[in-house]
Amino acid sequence: MHLPIQHVFLKLAAIIQPWAAGLCILCFLFGLPIALLFSPPDYQQGDTVRIMYIHVPAAWMGLFCYGVMAAGSASYLIWRHPVANMVAKASAPIGAMFTALCLLTGMLWGEPMWGTPWVWDARLTSMLVLFFLYLGYMALGDAFDSPEQGDKAAAILALVGSVNLPIIKFSVDWWNSLHQPSIFSMAGVSVDTAMLPPLFLMVGAFQLYYVVVVLMRVRAQVLTAKIRAARLMRAA
Amino acid sequence: MNTFFILVGRDLRLSVRHRADTVMVAGFFAITVILFPFGIGPEPGVLERVGAGILWVTALLASLLSLDHLFSDDEQDGALDLLLTSPAAPTVVVAAKIIAHWLTTGLPLTLLAPVLGITLQMPSSSAAPMMTALLIGTPTLSLIGAVGAALTLGARRRGILMPLVVLPLYIPILIFGVGAIDTTGMGFDAGGLFAVLGGFLLIAAALCPWAAAAALKIASE
Amino acid sequence: MNTFFILVGRDLRLSVRHRADTVMVAGFFAITVILFPFGIGPEPGVLERVGAGILWVTALLASLLSLDHLFSDDEQDGALDLLLTSPAAPTVVVAAKIIAHWLTTGLPLTLLAPVLGITLQMPSSSAAPMMTALLIGTPTLSLIGAVGAALTLGARRRGILMPLVVLPLYIPILIFGVGAIDTTGMGFDAGGLFAVLGGFLLIAAALCPWAAAAALKIASE
Amino acid sequence: MLGFGMVRAMSDQTQSPVTLGVRDLSARRGGRTIFEGLSFELQNSQSMAVVGPNGSGKSTLLRILAGLLRSETGTIQIDPDDRGAICFAGHRDGLKGALTVHENLRFWANLYGAAEPAVEHAVGRMALETVLDMPADMLSAGWRRRAGLARLALGTASIWILDEPYTALDTENVARIDTLLSTHVESGGIALLATHQAPGFTPTQRIDMADYRAKVPEGPEMDW
Amino acid sequence: MLGFGMVRAMSDQTQSPVTLGVRDLSARRGGRTIFEGLSFELQNSQSMAVVGPNGSGKSTLLRILAGLLRSETGTIQIDPDDRGAICFAGHRDGLKGALTVHENLRFWANLYGAAEPAVEHAVGRMALETVLDMPADMLSAGWRRRAGLARLALGTASIWILDEPYTALDTENVARIDTLLSTHVESGGIALLATHQAPGFTPTQRIDMADYRAKVPEGPEMDW
Ligand code: HEM
Ligand SMILES: Nc1ncnc2c1ncn2[C@@H]1O[C@H](COP(=O)(O)OP(=O)(O)OP(=O)(O)O)[C@@H](O)[C@H]1O
Ligand SMILES: Nc1ncnc2c1ncn2[C@@H]1O[C@H](COP(=O)(O)OP(=O)(O)OP(=O)(O)O)[C@@H](O)[C@H]1O
Ligand SMILES: [Mg+2]
Ligand SMILES: [Mg+2]
Questions:
Q1: Which among A160, C4, C26, E66 would be 20 to 30 A from E175, CA to CA?
Q2: CB atoms A146 and D221 under 8 Å
């Protein structure tokens, strides 16, 4: 039924993927050394500030992936768009990974900065909640005897869970948190401008990595679906 | 609307008459209030400090555990099929069940809160903010929980899925709920926190019955 | 004896595979550990002070709530009738269910206790007494709870009856269990308290399976 | 008598049209197509027996028609198209054991918008007078079934969809259900029933699910 | 064939004696005497149909004989008197929906002490091969019933007590159960079955519960 769309998708993916992969590698090649070696140390934090170049992009990607997942789920539920669901499903593990990376680097950073790896602070907890939501999405999708049922249930959960995104975003403003407030705000940029190029390189690298992996995973799903359809046709 | 009251009435009757876990809630609170001073020891400073937290956590657990049966009892004996094929719209069925659930879990807790507060040695001035916070917050628990219960209805390993799905969404309510009580207790104005709780309730009321009804239709397949 | 392991195996398999509340226990603990610091606030002194209490109360609640389904699932689908008419003696059936219940509630909690302790900011020296106390205490919870579950099986308003029947018997274990952890934590010898917990376990193990089997026969009528 | 036909007759004198038609229906469950290419149409006063061996998809078909499952392909046309036009009775009777028979029945009556006399009428039709105040879980299997089916006799639905209604009933009560069915059909209603027993009244149509079996192998091939 | 008779025959060559007798039985439920003065005796290779209208006490009688209920008065004599001599199958089949058919069956086989070949034999007798790896709650009503009754075919029990075994089964499977029953009885076993359908094999005895109805008024008088 939806084969044309999937076909278009496969074609597009085949074009985009190598470019994205190449760019991603370039970003990492330039970004990592600059971030970890050549960028200036912070006047307060010293070299530990370099964790930021992993932590912040990971945090943003954690949020971004959930956004994609929620949008994909919505269009799957509303327009029954199978590719949208595949994108949502493919984003979940990547998002969970970035979220975990953010949590881990945050804990590593917290040890020297706050004297403790973990506090039950709103920003930290809502991020942990995001991680659980990812887990819940994946677990729920797998928990049904019929795959469609799981897909739909998980899609509903993704939508309902998206209320968590603003909570994460604004948690530092709503509660007096240990955590840094946003770098970018109405008032302008609050870090040394020398830190921005490596930060953006890393953000770009992570983003491109996401694009590459999502395309790979969706392609795999499309092909699996094709194979299954073919098997059923042959069996019939 | 009439249909709605018929459905609420039935669920209430069942939870009074039945061997239902919903009635357990009053017992559950009593237990908590008996057990915690035992477990924590009678030192007044400590108990008082954690009172609001204990109340809210209890509310969350009670809600979570009783929700497990919100739809599954009716599913087991076939009544859910009949309800979904009846003249009542699925959203109305879900909304009625949510209200009935709140009336048998959230409301008793809210009403008992002052008593529980005294037993947990909280200052009597905290009674009003406590009741207000619970009154606004507990319906949201029922609403969100119903979505979780419906989503996991046909699922395998449901026992572990329910908390995984529902709790992340409960945590904000817990934070604001406790915050509202404690802030008032410290003599500050907690209007903003109550407003946020109210906002959650409005959002949940607007979304959850539909989400749960949609999930229920999926589960019944 | 062989029969016994077959029955335990089945219940374990069900609780892993099934939509069962028993598996919920791991989730339940995780929740508790996440929720309480939230509810109580992150101040280290307070949390540390109430850690043992929270762990034990969690154990009690988890035990109580999962016991609700110890026999009723099998009763609902007719399996209990078949078990009672099978070659397995009712006492063996009950004993197997109790062991399976402990393996899925008490044991995970005991094993998780050190981790939970850290999260609740308890000193790492408390890990050993905590685990010992839970290891001796939690089987007693399952044993006593099984009697309660069997007694209330056919009863109306079962949800409210279970806690009423079981909790008074749980409280001594709570008191001694928390006492044992806290006493060791303060650097004293808690041998006597552990011995009392052990004594409870022996008495419960000697009496409860028979009592529960007798109650079950009555309930099946 | 206050059956569906009566109510209709009172309201608009002429028999309102009732239709249940499906065209080219197929159903999928557990990753396997259960049946395909099924079409039929029922009009006022028509009834259909759905037969077929175990697992051939009778219950699946009835649940699809009742709106509880989605079909894989095909169209379903139901008229009147309002909720409550269909009364479904499945394998499980949905009685609440803690409530009395009367309470159970009254709940459904309220929900279906039937008046108190309709409840009394239904009680009479199913001869439930003696057990009205018994909690439903004290009933024997057959009585329970009968109490469950009393919902039909409330007379609000024009299309009855029954999945093995005769289960656990003795001959007297089988006849009672048969009478109920034939009165309903005679007064303009539609009835579908899946059964392994030959009903005592003669349905106007009959569909054998074995004829619509999907042409895929059963068993290990399914991909759930 | 590896039925009960076979096992016995292998073990002691001669047919071991099996008896199920009751004398002057009466039963009380919900504060009301259901039946009274019931006596009968079954020996090797005898079988009995328990008939009677809904609510007459068939299930109650069978549950008493299976040891699940206590009788009010009367004596019951069962031989061999060990646990496991009786295999009971009630209205509900006790299958665990989360386990596959095979897992369900193997559990009962282990519990009854039947060996692996007995499981295979039972699977063959009930033709369950294609659904062995399906979770039981994915089965249709009739398949589920069949999977539940496969327990009988394990061949360990000498006395079968069946409450409406034919429910939800199509003709082919009704015949399957009939064959199972007659093989069991022929090889020296005893079978009791409550049913509203005439079984395809002829039980040697027949008891109508209506004949033993207690002489107290039915209905509102009950004092539960
Ligand atoms: C486990 C602990 C931590 C977690 C879960 C966490 C989580 C997050 C999240 C979710 C963001 C993205 C916020 C947004 O986009 O608005 C973020 C950004 C950031 N985090 Fe953390 N963090 C943790 C620890 C830390 C620590 C210890 C530091 C440094 C002292 C830190 C510094 C920052 C900075 C500077 C940003 C960028 C702020 C922005 O632009 O929003 N984080 N973190
Ligand atoms: N919940 C389910 N999930 C997956 N497959 C199912 C489910 N229920 C039934 N099936 C499959 O669908 C098929 C048709 O089942 P259905 O219940 O419609 O049969 P039926 O004709 O009603 O049989 P019976 O006479 O035994 O009641 C069966 O092969 C069964 O395996
Ligand atoms: N749990 C119970 N508590 C009290 N009374 C009961 C209970 N179960 C059954 N009874 C009563 O016992 C009587 C006999 O019930 P039983 O189930 O033995 O009948 P039955 O002959 O099997 O009927 P059916 O053909 O409907 O299955 C009924 O009148 C019923 O009201
Ligand atoms: Mg069926
Ligand atoms: Mg019966």
A1: E66
A2: no
In sequence order, the β-bridge partners of residue D190 are: D159
Most confident of A58-72, B9-23, E67-81: A58-72
Q: Please answer whether residues B180 and C48 qualify as being in contact, where contact means their C-beta atoms are separated by less than 8 angstroms.
A: no
pLDDT of residue C199: 94
**Interatomic CA distance for residues A1 and A81, integer angstroms:** 11
Q: Lowest-confidence range among A84-93, C45-54, E147-156, E207-216? A: C45-54
Q: Which residues of A touch C38 (CB under 8 A)?
A: 120, 125
Band of residue D13 on the pLDDT scale cut at 50, 70, 90: very low
Name the β-bridge partners of E33: E28
Calpha distance A161→B208 (Å, rounded): 11
The answer to whether the Cβ–Cβ distance between A235 and D224 falls below 8 Å is no
In chain C, residues 82-101 whose CB comes closer than 8 Å to chain E: 82-89
| Residues listed for chain C | 221
* Mutational test site, ligand 3, from E25, E34, E50, max ligand atoms within 8 Å of CB: E34
Chain A, 98 to 127: residues with Cβ < 8 Å from chain B are 122, 125-126
pLDDT digits (tens, 9 = 90+) for D185-207: 999 999 999 998 877 888 999 99
The whole-number average pLDDT for the span C174-184 is 86
pLDDT tens digit string along B24-74?
A: 666 667 776 677 777 777 676 777 777 888 888 878 877 877 787 889 888
Residues A13, A218 contacting (CB under 8 angstroms): yes
Cβ(E142)–Cβ(E173) under 8 Å?
yes
Residue A91 CB neighbours (<10 A): 28
The ligand minimizing its distance to the Cα of E167 is 2
Q: For a pLDDT cut of 90, what percent of chain C falls above it?
A: 29
Pick from D82, D92, D151: CB nearest B77: D92
| Cβ neighbours of A146 in B, within 8 Å | 221
Query: Of the candidates C132, C129, C134, which has an alpha carbon nearest to the alpha carbon of residue C188?
Result: C129
Which residues are within 5 Å of ligand 5 (an ion), measured at CB? D 140-141; E 59
Can you give the length of chain A in residues?
Answer: 236
Q: In angstroms, what separates the C-alpha of D167 from chain B's closest C-alpha?
A: 15
C24, C69, C158: best to mutate for the B interface, most B CBs within 10 A: C24
CA distance C18 to chain B (A): 5
Q: Which domain holds residue C23?
A: 2-220
Residue E140 DSSP SS3: coil
D60 touches ligand 2 (CB under 6 Å): yes
Structure tokens at D53: 């061996």
Crossing angle (nearest 10°) for helices B44-67 and B127-151: 30
Instruction: Domain count for chain B, please give it.
Output: 1
Q: How far apart are CA C98 and CA B209, in angstroms?
A: 39
The token duo for B176 is 């604001």
Pairing of the two strands D205-208 and D47-51 = parallel
Instruction: Pick the closest to residue A165 from A56, A51, A53, A69 (CA basis).
Output: A69
What residue type is assigned to position C145 of the chain? G
* CB of A60 shorter than 6 A to ligand 1: yes
**Å from B16 to nearest chain A CA?**
31
pLDDT at position C28 is 66
Interface test with A, best of C17, C34, C36, C115 (most A CBs within 10 A): C34
**Per-residue tokens: C21:** 């509340």
- Token pair of A228, please? 């299954």
Report how far apart, in Å, the C-alpha atoms of C197 and of each of B41, B149, D104, D167 are.
19, 38, 49, 54
Residue D82's pLDDT is what?
A: 81
Please report residues of D whose CB lies closer than 8 A to that of E146: 54
User: Residue E13: its pLDDT value, please?
Assistant: 37
Kindly indicate the confidence band of residue B1, based on its pLDDT and cuts at 50, 70 and 90.
low
